[in-house]
Here is the input.
Amino acid sequence: MNLNATIIGQLIAFAVFVMFCMKYVWPPITAILEERQKKIAEGLEAAERAQRDLNLAQNKAADELRAAKQQGAELIEQANKRANQIIDEAKDKARVEGQRLIAAAQAEIEMETQRAREALRAQVAAIAVAGAEKILGHAIDQAANEELMNKLAAEL
Amino acid sequence: MANSHEVVETTQTASEYVQHHLGFLTYGKHADGTWGFAHSTEDALAMGFWAINVDSMMISLLLGLLFLGLFRFCISKATSGKPGGLQNFIEIIVEMVQSNVKNAFFGKNDLIGPLALTIFCWIFLMNTMDLIPVDIIPMFAQWVSGDPHLYFKAVPTTDLNITAGFAIGVFILVIYYSIKVKGLGGFLGEFAFHPFGKWALPLNLLLELPGFFAKFVSLALRLYGNFFAGEVIFLVIGLVGYWQLPMHLSWSIFHILVVTLQAYLFMMLTIVYLNQAHQTTH
Here is the structure.
């Protein structure tokens, strides 16, 4: 156990090494550690934020889906109503048209009947006159018998 | 008779073996006025204070440079992203030191962290030299120098000069920061007026001063004693023939614990003493 100048050498070396460590070793390592801690903290925060955003988006999507479904249902209902309305309108129109056609046909039939009757009446008068001429043997004065003929025709 | 003579002879060589291993490669001024290496322990003692243990000094410097070089090398490639293997290892050490400083040091001083890191790593490396088989490094030194009787001690922490160098460094820092934080009066007042008030001043001094100095003496002696004793036991085991192998193994495994523990302890006590230097209330 001999103490000698080694103690001084070691003391100087100690001082120099500590100073070197303090200047060139400790600060960069602690800086790196701090930087990594910050990065990790930021990463965690970002993850949390993303999770929150995701939840928000999911809620929003669900809301929109619900709204879209409701709107769709409304549209379908409206369309159904409209379709029924159109069908009803068509039915009404068809019915009116049919009645109009029927009425027109009846009117024509009536007119035709009238016309046939008129013609028949005229012909009956002529036939009656011809028949009478034959019976009497001579011509009947048309003018004198016209009134009679017309009366006959009206009776038919 | 011849038998007992032989026994005496072997014990002598055994003690010579141990003695030889405990000697240092000391460079200094011989009694006759010339400079050179000491050839025996007595020779080294006769050189007085102005001699230097070249072996422990050299290995101490090499290991210190190894520590700083390794860390610098790692820093040059370090990233704050995903760390690689070596960077991970170094970060674990730095974080360990950092958390210990945070837990034991309540002042604010940028020196404490690097100081604790240097002490831990450097002393750890020095202590680790103890795990290298006791004869390898001295034999290598003898082979390099060509002197078969060369003294060479491979474990710097078995040299009281080295451990005392650390302790004195810490001592100077404690005194410096005590005076800086508390003022000279405050620092001396701690010795003079505690614990019994100013009327018991001599008694206070008697109680406080030895305690203060004992901290640093024990700091140096604890580390030195642990590794000196460990070294002696390695040397004694080295005398036991073939049975030394399992014994060396078990003692080395036990010593891994001591190596780490003593380095940690030295660092921790340094932090605690410096913390006391920064505390204004006694």
Residues 46 and 52 of chain A are 10 Å apart (CA to CA).
